[in-house]
Amino acid sequence: MSRVEARGLGVVLGGRAVLAGVDLRADAGEWLAVIGANGAGKSTLLRALAGLLPHSGEVLVDGTPVRGLRPRERARLLAYAPQTPALPGDMTVFDYALLGRTPYIPHLGRESRADREVTGSVLERLDLTALAGRTLGHLSGGERQRVVLARALTQRASVLLLDEPTTALDLGHQQQVLELLDRLRLADGLTVVTTLHDLSVAGQYADRMTLVADGGAAATGTPEQVLTEELIGEHFDARVRVVAGTGGRPQVHLERP
Amino acid sequence: MTGSLPPAGKVRTAGPRLLVTLAACCLLLVSMLAALLVGAADIAPRGAALQLLDWLPFVSADSGLAPVERALLLELRLPRVLLAAIVGGLLACAGAGYQGVFRNPLADPYLLGAAAGAGLTTTAVIVFTTGEGGTLLVPGAAFAGAIGGVMLAYALGNVAGRGGGTATLVLAGVAVTSFLTAIQTFLQQLDVEELQRVYSWILGNVGGGWEQVRLVLPYAVVSVVVMLLYGRLLDVLSVGDDEASSLGVNVARVRLVVLLAASLATASAVAVSGLIGFVGIVVPHVVRRLAGGSYRAVLPLSLVGGAAFLVVADLVARTVIAPAELPIGVVTAFTGAPFFVTVLRLTRRVET
Known about the structure:
The complex is a heterodimer of chains A (257) and B (352).
Chain A: E1 4-13, E2 16-26, E3 31-35, H1 42-49, E4 56-61, E5 64-65, H2 71-77, E6 78-81, H3 93-98, H4 113-125, H5 141-154, E7 159-163, H6 171-188, E8 191-195, H7 199-205, E9 208-213, E10 216-221, H8 223-226, H9 229-236, E11 240-244, E12 250-254
Parallel strand pairs in A: 3-8, 3-9, 6-7, 7-8
Antiparallel strand pairs in A: 1-2, 1-4, 4-5, 9-10, 11-12
Helix pairs in contact in A: 4-5, 5-6
Chain B: H1 8-37, H2 45-55, H3 67-101, H4 114-128, H5 131-161, H6 166-190, H7 195-202, H8 210-229, H9 231-237, H10 241-246, H11 251-273, H12 279-291, H13 295-319, H14 328-346
Helix pairs in contact in B: 1-3, 1-13, 3-8, 3-11, 3-12, 3-13, 4-5, 4-6, 4-7, 5-6, 5-11, 8-11, 9-13, 12-13, 12-14, 13-14
């Protein structure tokens, strides 16, 4: 169980300040959804949290600044999956998931029996055992997303940073992946930070949301606090109607102007 | 939960990989034997075989070979076969290394200007010196030229790309290659008399003898060991820079180390054999088709496969029009291309 925080996070890319002074927090075992319009810097924020971009400010896990950690130590705390992961077509599912053990394998060493066992059990949990020997080029979209998740889980990090985990999935597969993620989160006490472009979906799963706009966190809070007609109208330039859905979670509907 | 292991994935990938490894080793042994027994000089293959047995420790056999024939076997054929194996292994392994670094199966050992650099310095030596002294300078000049070419491309890529991706580096390689080739062409036409020597070097030759074997061996060992050690990290690199870094891998350093080792391998191969093409790109490709894309398999299998391929190519080069010789570079391309196409056709897979 880990709490992840960002304090005054700033990122400059190509001479342009993409993010400045962003504060956010996800408590241990929470699901934080990062939302925002296209180009607002959601992915940049996630990459900065993962330590993949030079940034100002601090990222802390359980109060410890990540900056001071060695890359391998950081990788045992934070797992990251990009929006469109590179999946080498001729690598097997097992070998791909096994790469998640890298932070535990000595620099030029090879993986141990224990690493293979962890990988095997993760595949089993995600119903991927039957696909273990299949190459990544022969997977469907839903299977690919599960395999990427498997790689992140073999890393045994307590914080998962997932950039749009449901990209390019149809409705049913989106739901399956998110439900799976939620089950894993509850079972293992994982802290999950995702960017999600579908606001209703984000509102359904997230405990907490951060709306990124104009390089900063424009709003932070529960889905009810962030998904309001005013905030969405202002930061997405969209006309929407927000209604309370099951469990009081807000649902966002587009309205024709 | 752990009782069901090892999982299916391991069993399924290890099977063909082991088979391919064994096959490649057998192929190398057979081709080296064949290359030792057959040659332009009329040594009876049976006598040569017995002589080889006789040289093995604890074995003694009467070959019936004349001392001259024995010397021929020991001083000409044996080093030649070894040099072909070393150079082939180095080039193929370096090709696989470059492909891992650039995450592109079309990369080859000459991508970053190693060939053009070596071509330029060697041409300069041949054109500007006369007699024996010049010939002795060739390996050193070729080695320095190859390393210099790569360094020039790397420096240029870094300046232009500001730490950017590998695409800038490839473009820098292209620029350096055409620039150095232009100078080389100019030098070459200054002294048309020496054209044949220049060309015979460019087209490659592994007949250098023991001296060249000794020259190349230390560099070969170092570069190959480094590349083999980095196989797993190249696999991590293959899933993308961001993910590799998020797994705690220093991407830039892995790239640089493998690039250095692969360039050292290329430069040392070029120094003793000239510019033999085709091995570095085709062998890793064939290996990938047969044994999968993991660099932990591709690198060692390319080493063995490249060695076997060049031994056979050299055997063809020195027997087909004996007592004359074909340039080995011509043979690698001539036999390699149809072989490559056949393998591509027989093993249709998902595009890598």
